[in-house]
Amino acid sequence: MARAPLLQLSEISLTFGGDPVFDGLSLTIQPGDRVALVGRNGSGKSTLMKVMAGLVEADRGEVVLSAGVSTGYMEQDPDLSGFATLGEFAASGLPESEAYRVEMAAEGLKFDPARPVATASGGERRRAALARLLAQAPELMLLDEPTNHLDIQAIGWLEDHLSQTRAAYVLISHDRAFLRRLTRATLWIDRGEVRRQEKGFEGFEDWRESVWSAEDEARHKLDRKIKAEARWAVEGISARRKRNQGRVRALAALRAERSAQIRRQGTAAMALDSGPQSGKKVIEAKGIAKAFGGRTILRPFDLLVNRGDRVAFVGPNGAGKTTLIKMLTGEVAPDEGTVMLGTNLEVAVFDQTRSQLNPDQTLWESLTGDPDMRVSGRADQVMVRGQPKHVVAYLKDFLFDDAQARAPVRSLSGGEKARLLLARLMARPSNLLVLDEPTNDLDVETLDLLQDLLGEYDGTVLLVSHDRDFIDRVADTTVAMEGDGRATVYAGGWSDYRAQRGDDTPDAVSETARKAAAPADRPKAAKSGLSFTERHRLDALPAVIERLEAEIGKLIQFLAQPDLFTAAPAKFQKATEALAERQQALAAAEEEWLALEEKAEG
Fold it and tell me: Which stretches make up the ABC transporter domain (predicted)?
């Protein structure tokens, strides 16, 4: 028997003081759906998710949530006012007996529940909001950029959690590896129309290109028909005293149809100028080390960066990636060792905190207010790679329209702020790019373009990122900050780094599991005939087993309360079902681990 849908949107129309965001939109979310919600920055992804969550009311249409269905929405900027600590916020609305869920999520997402809200960073607030949603375990989860501000280890934990949940979810994310692993269907917002394909994100780009190809062919045929009819109309004047008015009206209708078609938004006209060539040796670090307040950030470390290298820095949040880059570029002095910088260096920095952007300035002022960009004596032009250009024309290169030029920076979405920061960075010639989390909030098309630009860039790139797919596409060297001040250099990108590490991979195996593993056992998976996917799964299973055992222990402790059955029969039933589910999952995980271990041993 078919189950009722969790959520239905019927003939939704929504306008924000201009062109409609959606018009006549209908879609359904079914139980167990795992949906990627994709589209260009500004296409309305977050707005649609807020409509689903009931936070934005449509002008017309109907939103129906099936009776008894619980939903949870994670927004990009959660409001924590009224709560003293992150843990208090994350546990709000939960029964005390289920507070352990917050503790487990906090451990996986790497934030301190005792952290006061007043001193918490934006990333910590977002992680607390995500922990709150996961702890509530709704039947439908609406997740808007859940991987932002998560390190690769936390992203791996979240992937494992979502891959095992029975809940349905809709995901907005720039992380292609995350979407590929977790989704089974794709909602694509394109010029106000929402299309659905019953395939995960893995098939999105091929699907998009086939849709656009068919659209281009249909437009070409329509243009040819209009041209033919227009020729007939002109020649008919001399050929006949009275033209066929029906064909004239049909020509007008064809022209109206053509003008009503919404042209696809192009890609940003981004460009990089590598400026004067630097010396062959860009950075040489010998024995550099750093400590803050008695905490070791970096143990003695050597690195040679030559012209044209693309070096990615990976590791947990707080491991010291940004500090290491600042030492390598001379911004921070090491406690020990030396850093020698090459000749003719011109450095451009993309700062993940976007501190270069003043939220109170307009986009226009953000560009013309920079003395390095402003053309002397002209308040409406900026210097772009040595050539003057009107500020609005340059903003259009980065997909901003005329109206946005005078809008405040604070009104921009996360992706638009990232594009504005790229506009500032790319206006200057440079031969050393420092990119600290450049992929946050960017749409797939802009990510592809940025990747292509970096591939063609003659200069050197230092990249901090938690986007595994982007690292694989860009980096030729990876520096892993592995904790306790350790930093190790690996050839290649993220996948190459993991392959070289074998089963001792920091984002796949918990610290407890690594310490418990016998040193002699560690290289087995790497030497076996396991595939890359099987090695990854074998790496991840100890952490999965450990988490399931912890959850089972908590549930057994909860069910051991003598008066639980009589005082709260519904909670008793729910906990009993959860216990059975986790015991079954634990047995399956242990069986899978044994099978892979046997295969690894040959």
Answer: 7-216, 283-511
pLDDT at residue 521 is higher than 70: no
* Closest by CA position to 150, among listed 179, 133, 130: 130
Is the Cβ–Cβ distance between 328 and 305 less than 8 Å? yes
The residues, ordered by sequence, that sit 6+ positions from 382 with a Cβ below 8 Å of its Cβ are 367, 368, 370, 373, 374, 375, 388, 389, 391, 394, 427
CA 18 from centre of chain: 28
CB 223 within 8 A of CB 230: no
Residue 55, SS3 per DSSP: coil
CA distance 297 to 315: 12
Show the 3-state SS of 242-259. CCCHHHHHHHHHHHHHHH
User: What are the pLDDT digits (tens) for 444-503?
Assistant: 777 887 888 888 888 899 999 989 999 998 999 999 997 788 999 999 999 889 888 874
- Per-residue pLDDT tens for 361-398? 899 888 887 766 767 656 788 888 778 888 888 888 88
Residue showing tokens 């977002």: 126
| Of 155, 546, 470, the residue nearest 316 (C-alpha) | 155
Structure tokens at 228: 């033919």
316, 483 contact by CB (below 8 A): yes
Tracing tokens 């560009």 back to the chain, one arrives at 367
Residue identified by tokens 């089963």 is 503
Which residue blocks in 261-372 are alpha helix, DSSP H?
Answer: 321-328, 363-368
Partnered with residue 376 across adjacent β-strands are: none
pLDDT at residue number 262: 52
Q: In percent, how much of the chain has pLDDT > 70?
A: 82
Q: Is the pTM of this model over 0.70?
A: no
SS3 per residue for 474-522: HCCEEEEEEECCEEEEEECCHHHHHHHHCCCCCCCCCHHHHHHCCHHHC
Q: H or E stretch including 27? A: strand 20-29
Long-range contacts of 59-63 (CB under 8 A, 24+ apart): 59/13, 59/14, 59/15, 60/11, 60/12, 60/13, 61/9, 61/10, 61/11, 61/12, 61/13, 61/24, 61/25, 62/8, 62/9, 62/10, 62/11, 62/12, 63/7, 63/8, 63/9, 63/10, 63/12
Query: How far is residue 288's CA from residue 111's CA, in Å, rounded to a whole number?
Result: 29
Q: Residue 501: count other Cβ atoms within 10 Å of its Cβ.
A: 18
What DSSP string describes 163-210?
HH--SEEEEE-S-HHHHHHH-SEEEEEETTEEEEESS-GGGHHHHHHH
Tokens of 496: 């190459």
Report residue 240 as tokens.
């006949």
pLDDT digits (tens, 9 = 90+) for 190-235: 877 888 999 999 989 888 888 877 777 766 666 666 666 566 555 5
